[in-house]
Amino acid sequence: MSAFPTTPPTAPTPSTLDEALRLLEAERARSQSDRLEAVARFASMAVHDYNNLLSVINGYCEMLAPELEPQPEIAAQVAEIHKAGKKAVELSRLLMGLSGKQSFEPQTVDLNSLVQEQRSYLTGLVAISRASLHVEAASPEPCRVQTDTEQFKQALHHLVANARDAVSGQAKGEVVLKIELRTGECSNTQAVALSIVDNGTGIDESVHARLFEPFFTTKRTGKGVGLGLFFVDSVVKRSGGTITARNAAPQGAIFEIVLPLVTAGSANPANGEAA
């Protein structure tokens, strides 16, 4: 008599596989939630003291700047310290958002004006990689949306910095900001679309689905902690909008934010109040 089974083992049924996948997804979500909670606790405890230290550093940099005008070499070094200090302030605000201690205060803002106000800063941000920045405003009309202005600026900085990193090393790296008005195909609902386009290497399909997950990054150790796009996604959602990412043709990537257009008498998409 044969010692081996005469019939093949029963294959898992679709319901069994579905249940296993559901449990794996639930475990991954629980782990992610635990990590976020830990970061939130840390941020809540540390960010106050962190801000106090930054106030001292940035304050002294501002006081020293005029005194060091006759010594340009030292002045440049202090300017670099100040630049790092201001960057740290942005990180502090990001941590505040993650801790749930930073309030979201939506107000009506014209994206055309906001981008133009930030243009000089964004140009410098992109120039680090010897790339160029172009702004295309398709609509001469105001593109008003409801969002927390300061947090949206931070989100814009993150997206442009990501685009800059993507074109780093390119002979002719380019980052383009496009703003346009759109009308829904099935209704007269209007929206404002803000696109950040680069001619870098594009998005690998293997990481596309995880781009906006917290703590996920494709950057090497020390270059990112994977919270920037998560923060951007949070700001956009709290503004009543959506953000998507896709590859551009013939190369590069497009990150597109779509927010409801605010018109006279329209509802505030962020909190449901009349604008």
TrEMBL record:
Q: Which organism is it from?
A: Cephaloticoccus capnophilus
Its EC top class is transferase
Q: Which SUPFAM superfamilies match?
A: ATPase domain of HSP90 chaperone/DNA topoisomerase II/histidine kinase, Homodimeric domain of signal transducing histidine kinase
Give the catalytic activity: ATP + protein L-histidine = ADP + protein N-phospho-L-histidine
In which domain of life is the source organism classified?
A: Bacteria
Gene3D superfamilies referenced in this protein's UniProt entry, alphabetically: 1.10.287.130, Histidine kinase-like ATPase, C-terminal domain (3.30.565.10)
What taxonomic ancestry is recorded? Bacteria, Pseudomonadati, Verrucomicrobiota, Opitutia, Opitutales
Return the CDD domains for the record: HisKA
- Enzyme Commission identifier(s): 2.7.13.3
Alphabetized InterPro entries for the sequence: HATPase_C_sf, HATPase_dom, His_kinase_dom, HisK_dim/P_dom, HisK_dim/P_sf, Sig_transdc_His_kin-like_C
Protein name as catalogued: histidine kinase
List the keywords (alphabetical).
Phosphoprotein
Molecular-function GO terms, alphabetical: phosphorelay sensor kinase activity
- Where's the Histidine kinase domain? 45-263
Q: Respond yes or no to whether keyword Chloroplast is given for this record.
A: no
